[in-house]
Amino acid sequence: MSILSKNATVRCVKILGIETSCDETAISVVEAEGDLKSLHFRLLGSAIHSQIKIHEQYGGVFPTLAKREHTKNLPIVLEEALQKAGIKNPKEELNLIVVTVGPGLEPALWTGITFAEKLGEEWGLEVVPTNHMLGHIASVLFNKTDELGSEESKVKSKDKIEFPALALLISGGHTELVMMDDWIHRKKIGETVDDAVGEAFDKVARMLGLPYPGGPQISKLAKQAREQGISSNKKLPRPMIHSGDYNFSFSGLKTAVLYYLRDNPEAEKLEVAREFEDAVIETLLSKTERAIEEYAPKTLIIGGGVIANEALRAEFDKLQERYGDLKILIPEKSLTTDNATMIAAAGYIDYLNKTHLALKAEGKLSV
Ligand code: KG4
Ligand code: ZN
Question: Which of 11, 60, 102, 207 is least enclosed by beta carbons within 10 angstroms?
Answer without folding.
Answer: 11
